[in-house]
Each structure stands twice: as structure tokens, then as C-alpha cells.
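Deliverable D4.2, example record:
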Amino acid sequence: QVQLVESGGGLVQAGGSLRLSCPASRGTFNDYNMGWYRQAPGKEREFVARITSLGVTLYADSVKGRFTIFRDNAKNTVCLQMNNLKPEDTAMYYCNFLYNPIPWGQGTQVTVSS
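Output generated by the structure prediction step:
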């Protein structure tokens, strides 16, 4: 079974950048619609961005223009490039299949200091 292992998080100052990665442990994500989500302390998990199997992307209003979701097909990885980070972006970030999600991974922590 595919497992989700997110990486790339860290501590960064406001205005900084991070790139998150979500490689496929088995097979490939290339034929699937994939999403990135985040959960801040005390809040519900929320949608951040998604990419379809055809490469069509969609973003939450709060990250539009700052975040970019893309595939690294050679590495069977779905990535999230995050620029101009803000303190309100602080959260645990997760990837998953957009439809028929599988058990969530451990996520990767993003902390943005002001």
C-alpha cells in the first residue's frame, strides 16, 4: 500500500520560502489528482492546493499567488513551493489523494516567525 511521507518543512522567517515534497512510496502519483492540506494547532485540517492528473491546479485563496503545486514526474513526487511565507502559514502540512484519500502521513511542520 502507498504510504505518504511528507518532508521539507522547517522554521523560516516571514517572507521566506520552503519547498515541500511528497514522494510516492510505491508506483506513481502521476495518474492521480493530488492535494496538499494543512492543519494549524486547534484548527481543522484545510485544503491548500491541488493538481489534477492533467496538471490543472487550484489554490486556496489564502495562498494564491504565493504557493505553487507541481509534480516532479522523474521522482514520482508532488511538491509544494511556498514563497513569501506568513506567520499564518504555520501548520503541519500533509499531502494526499484528492479523491479516495488514504490514511494520512505524519506531515511536515512549517513554522513561520514574524
